[in-house]
Amino acid sequence: MKLLLAITFLHWSSLLLAQQDTLKIYRWEEVQKANPDTIFAIDASKLKWEKLPGQLYTFRNLKYLDISKNKLKELPLEMGGFKQLKILDATKNNIDAAPIVICQLPKLQKLHLAKNKISSLPACIGYLADLKMIDIWDNPINVLPEEILNLKKLEVVDMRSIMLGPGFQKKWEQSMPNVKWYFDPPCHCVE
Fold this sequence. Notes:
alpha/beta, 191 residues, eight-stranded parallel beta sheet
């Protein structure tokens, strides 16, 4: 009976904890007059922003930020104030510089930078100890910083739609065999 009670308690406890991790995602329009301390997830996608509005930086407790499908050319250093951010989606913008600010996001777990113009990732990415996923498909990246090897929790790297040679692919698959690497078939034209 005690065992059944203990199992039931553990089951309900895990359900309650799982519910606490579920965030309500607010659209940008919904948070205009909200108390910034009460908002943990914002979807600011498809707003045609060329730069992030200053008001966004007042939401210091964000764990999730979707700024995909805008017209951003960079991720500004002010984003470094999002110390609780776990998921950043900046897919499908016009970002062309290595986004150095990601290194100031110590709790980052998922980084979506697909369909931009990024040619390199900053070496400091190796300090993001909680990073589990990097999505950089369809960017002109042909080199990764060796510091990625420091990412012990890394599970997935998506580099599809990038012309990479077989040597590049083999090197990273062998260096990090516990990571699921997504590559297009290798191109022998780049080696």
